[in-house]
Amino acid sequence: MLSSLWKKKTALMVGIDIGSHSIKAVLLNQNDNGYILETLAIEPMPRGAIVDREIQDIDAVGKVIAKIRKKISSSVRQAASAVSGQTVITKIIYMDVALTEQELASQIEIEADSLIPYPLDEVSLDFESLDINESDPSKMNVLLSAARTESVEARVAALEAGGFETKVIDVESYAISRAYDLILRQLPDDAADKIIATVDLGATMTLFSVTESGTHIYSRDQLFGGEQYTRSIVSYYNKSFEEAELAKLTDDLPPNYTFEVLAPFHTILVQQIRRAIQMFLTTSGKAKIDYLVISGGSALVEGVKQLLSEELGIHTVIADPFAGMEISSTINQEVLAKTGPRYMVAAGLALRSFSPWHI
């Protein structure tokens, strides 16, 4: 299934990030001066339609995507979306460097049975040949990705119900890494040669993705997000979930909220990111993270950038994937400046229109 969807670009595609609380869409174009932000859109998701990044109600999600469809040029029908969560597995495996692409595909299908903890008839597989293994030049590093087929098919069905033709189903952590070039200008001049961790803080899921010298080397999903902050507001101030979300976005909270809800959320956030960094360092053998990029809706929570810089001792920036781009006159740039970090995954998916990435 994924083999037919994870293909190189043929035309402009809308990047559509299907999240637990909202759907975000980005359409990029390109000229001699760089990328152009043509359109972006966001629509709220009905509660319960997606749980732990898995679609529970295809019709409900399709209706939200149909609202997005109305905001996108009718000439662009193709879409790229992504899967994430516990049912997505990525591994680096080592294969004979002499194998052709077809031979590699056949061998990986044999190898996958021992590497994937699900029956192979329930998963969709794809792979990408990376580079020659430094320790053994007779081997090639190959990225193997697997996703539950039902997760892929649910996204395809929802996109089609919303009026799009699905061309790509990606992995969210790789979409984040693909947006690396978009945020590089926000970092110091030596960042292109450094180890950069991007933390995308969603409503219920945090994506931790690491690149070294522009190459994706690690990713991990964690069940943690801004919804915990919202639930604290609900319990402390006797608000509905919707009222709490609005209060969070408009800063309409009591003066003592800093101590009652913000500080505890900050503490948990630092713990989660510190744990993710430590796990990466232990697994990879790397000495440190050089720079930290924070994206997603919860990146907009008050004080996150300063908090992480001080507590972790790492130079931290809030992602602005559209910085330096030409912006369409139809887009409100004042609103964009306040919401840009939300669109990191969607921007990475939109780049599939131009990127030669196979996966």
Q: What is the count of distinct domains?
A: 3
Strand content: 25-35%
CATH topology name of the largest domain, in short, is Nucleotidyltransferase, domain 5
CATH architecture assignment name of the largest domain = 2-Layer Sandwich
> What count of helical segments does DSSP give?
12
Q: Main beta sheet: strand number and arrangement?
A: 6 strands, mixed
CATH homolog superfamily of the largest domain:
ATPase, nucleotide binding domain
Q: Helix/strand/pairing class, anyone?
A: alpha/beta
Q: Overview of this structure, please?
A:
- The protein has about 350 residues and is α/β, with parallel strands linked by helices.
- The protein has 12 helices and 16 strands.
- The strands form 4 sheets. Strands 10-6-1-2-3-16 form a 6-stranded mixed β-sheet.
- Helix 2 crosses helix 4 and helix 7 crosses helix 8.
- The chain is globular, with a radius of gyration of 20 Å.
- The N terminus is likely disordered.
